[in-house]
Specification:
single chain; Alpha-D-Glucose-1,6-Bisphosphate, Chain A, domain 3; about 20% strand; 18 strands; TATA-Binding Protein; alpha/beta; 6-stranded mixed sheet
Length: about 450
């Protein structure tokens, strides 16, 4: 598969690394590659988050699509998961999101989606990559049959309608008082959607960081900085708080006491609720939990223990959307995710933070239980994560260095069954991520920094 375009996207500094010229070539190449298998001009959905560079790059991308004979439907500011939902429900061949997740405003990520809303296939990414170089022989469309740009004005209505269709709960299932919910929008894509959705679900909504100016996205807010939300929930006596990233794909929660809930604990809440619903249905509801859930290698040991106690099979995969979604599709699973806050559902083509938060809210409404009680079904083991920068020429080589591998193996032997160690290289930069997990925080913390020093001493 191409080393340039990957299913997880093309990432870099906006305008300088991810340049307008590159976006022009990408749009032209995508229109040509996608149009080969179609007898009509290929239709693209284009979305972006509120970071300052997105509109300039979007303009160049649309110009390239038109030069290649495609039609660009510009959706405006919407989470890429919302665009993915629209792709799956409507008639378009491809989607391109200009976003950055939890990255600061100066960086950006370009993600390509298939017409099902899933990440674009490696084969089609290879075909687009082959047409990307400026020297590629690409016949441009003439003035008579160049593409078109259509700016959509009903994006918000369509996205909220798709979310509401997945959250259709009869009013008589809502118990107790009206819940007060705090939402940290990270000055990102969900800023214009979060309040309307949660008011529709019957909650009292208090918003934080919902006025994007192009450069404040993810800045000391959202999932990257949970402390302000924790204090806000306690100060305003909220029943729960939810934080998102700039793109709206990630979601982390805070219970009424100010305790942080990561993706693993939210996944356990949803699994427990599904088990309870199946039990109350007396066999009228399909027992989807018998098939299990998809978890990644980064999932907490506490969640794995919870699933084992509830006899829920766990299908382990790598922490990337395409791997989790493939596992869910192949085994017919209802849920997937890990501690990062990316949760996956069988009725959504991409992780959606608003959908995650709304479903947790609905569990609170159905059961009448506070979030702290719901999350107590799972004991969360402490985790320690550190990153080590390495020289580029050490990439992949460190995995075969005997001094590094022997030291890691010795730490694993000493830790035994009381925890685990994950050491892996990041794909997008020259660094190694070290993650340890176990019930004894001091012990795993010592191991983490010992492994960090061992790698540093060898790769300097």
């Amino acid at each position: 598969m191409s080393r340039f375009l990957r299913p997880e996207g093309l990432r870099g500094v906006a305008i300088t690394e991810i340049s307008c010229e590159l976006m022009l070539r990408l749009g032209r190449a995508a229109a040509q590659a996608v149009g080969r298998s179609s007898n009509h001009p290929p239709v693209f959905y284009i979305s972006h988050d509120p970071r300052r560079s997105a509109e300039a790059l979007e303009a160049a991308l649309c110009a390239g699509i038109c030069a290649g004979g495609g039609i660009a439907h510009v959706l405006g500011v919407v989470p890429s998961s919302g665009m993915a939902m629209m792709l799956a429900a409507e008639d378009a061949e491809c989607g391109i999101a200009l976003t950055g997740g939890d990255l600061p405003f100066e960086s950006i990520c370009v993600r390509l989606y298939s017409k099902t809303g899933a990440p674009m296939s490696p084969e089609l990414l290879d075909a687009i990559s082959a047409l990307l170089p400026s020297t590629a022989a690409l016949p441009l469309k003439s003035h008579q049959n160049c593409g078109l740009i259509s700016r959509q004005t009903d994006t918000a209505k369509r996205y909220l309608r798709l979310l509401a269709a997945r959250l259709n709960t009869p009013a008589n299932l809502t118990r107790g008082k009206k819940l007060r919910i705090a939402l940290d929008c990270a000055n990102g894509s969900v800023s214009g959607y979060a309040e309307a959705l949660f008011r529709h679900l019957g909650a009292e909504v208090l918003l934080m960081n919902y006025t994007p100016d192009g450069i404040n996205i993810n800045r000391e807010c959202g999932v990257q900085s949970m402390e302000p939300l924790i204090e806000f929930v306690k100060d305003y006596n909220c029943d729960a708080g939810f934080a998102f990233d700039g793109d709206g794909g990630r979601c982390l929660a805070v219970d009424e006491s100010g305790e942080l809930l990561n993706g693993d604990r939210m996944l356990a809440i949803l699994c427990e609720d599904k088990l309870e619903q199946q039990k109350q249905s007396n066999g009228s509801m399909p027992n989807v939990m018998q098939r299990g859930v998809a978890a990644t290698v980064m999932s907490n040991l506490g969640f794995l223990r919870y699933a084992k106690e509830r006899v829920i099979p766990v299908h382990i995969t790598q922490p990337a959307p395409q791997f989790v979604l493939d596992k869910m599709h192949n085994f017919g699973l209802a849920f997937g995710g890990d501690g990062s806050g990316y949760l996956y559902f069988d009725d959504a083509p991409a992780p959606d933070g608003l959908l995650t938060a709304a479903r947790i809210l609905q569990v609170m409404q159905r059961t009448g239980k506070p979030l702290s009680v719901l999350s107590s079904v799972m004991e969360h083991d402490p985790q320690v994560a550190v990153s080590v920068r390495i020289p580029p020429y050490w990439r992949e080589i460190w995995k075969n260095d005997p001094q590094i591998t022997r030291f890691i193996a010795a730490c694993e032997d000493e830790l035994g069954t009381e925890g685990r160690i994950l050491v892996r290289e990041r794909r997008d930069d020259a660094s190694i991520r070290i993650m340890l997990e176990g019930r004894d925080f001091r012990r795993i913390n010592n191991y983490a920094f010992a492994i960090e020093e061992a790698i540093k001493s060898r790769t300097k």
